[in-house]
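User: Please predict the structure of the protein below. I'd like the answer in structure-token form so I can feed it into my own downstream comparison script.

Assistant: Understood. Taking the following sequence of 66 residues as input:
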Amino acid sequence: MRKIAKEYGISLSSVSRIVKEEGVPKAQQEVIAEKDRAERKKRIQELEKRIAELEKKIFEIEASKR
């Protein structure tokens, strides 16, 4: 639903309301939910990687000060 909102320039709540009014087949809802989970997992992994990189830089900076 986020992608749809962004693509059409409308709010997420508008997309949600339209879906509730018009309905989406259950099988399609499951596909959408699985894609959302996969995207969230990927974003989390990217953020965890970035955090690890920043922690490493902090450690290196602190070590160089000693």
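That's the full token string. The two ends are 51 Å apart (CA to CA).
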